[in-house]
Amino acid sequence: MPAMAIWHRSPRRPRAQFDKLVNVHFKGVFFVTQALLPLIADGGRIVNLSTGLTRVSFPCFSAYAAAKGAVEVLSVYMAKELGSRGIAVNTVAPGAIETDFLGGAVRDTPDLNKTFAGMTALGRVGQPDDIGPMIAGLLHEDNRWINAQRIEVSGGQVI
């Protein structure tokens, strides 16, 4: 069961799981970016990852979605604060993707896969290769004017 699903149980264990979730998904983004900023060239690009779950509610994902929502807000502020260096900062928010996330739940659980596929306009869940081209595009010089944006890559999951 994901850490997000047990917020209402024993007070000690969920707190540790919540702290780990925030450490990985939010604090990690903040402090890794802070450490790498001296190495990022002026005119560079930063692409952070969020989730489609910041725009659609699905049971048991409140803490995860909140941490990713924090990444979205952080990205907008980073775009403003780093704009003087010409650094563009954007966020990519994938929908349900067949990966190892949650032990491969979307990939390996047919009913869950079908549920998420039914939520998309394209009628399927995403593949890892559906996300990479968007990230590569945001990193390309041709897209230098895209800044402070949250770009959902979900096959139309929230329409």
Order of helices and strands: HEHEHHHE
Helix content: 40-55%
Number of domains: 1
Supply the CATH class.
Alpha Beta
Tally the helices: what do you get?
A: 5
Ends apart, CA distance between termini: 28 Å
Describe the main β-sheet briefly.
Answer: 3 strands, parallel
CATH topology: Rossmann fold
User: Over the alpha carbons, how many angstroms does the gyration radius reach?
Assistant: 17 Å
Notes on the structure:
The chain is mostly helical and 159 residues long. It has a single domain (3-153), classed as Rossmann fold, CATH 3.40.50. It contains 5 helices and 3 strands. β1 (45-49), α2 and β2 (88-94) form a beta-alpha-beta unit. α1 (12-36) runs parallel beside α2 and α3 packs across α4 (110-117). The two termini are 28 Å apart.
Keywords:
globular; mainly alpha; Rossmann fold; 159 residues
Quick gist of this model?
This protein has 159 residues and is mainly alpha-helical. Helix content is 44%, strand content 10%.
Write the layout of secondary structure elements.
Elements: H1 12-36, E1 45-49, H2 62-82, E2 88-94, H3 101-108, H4 110-117, H5 132-139, E3 150-153
Helix pairs in contact: 1-2, 3-4
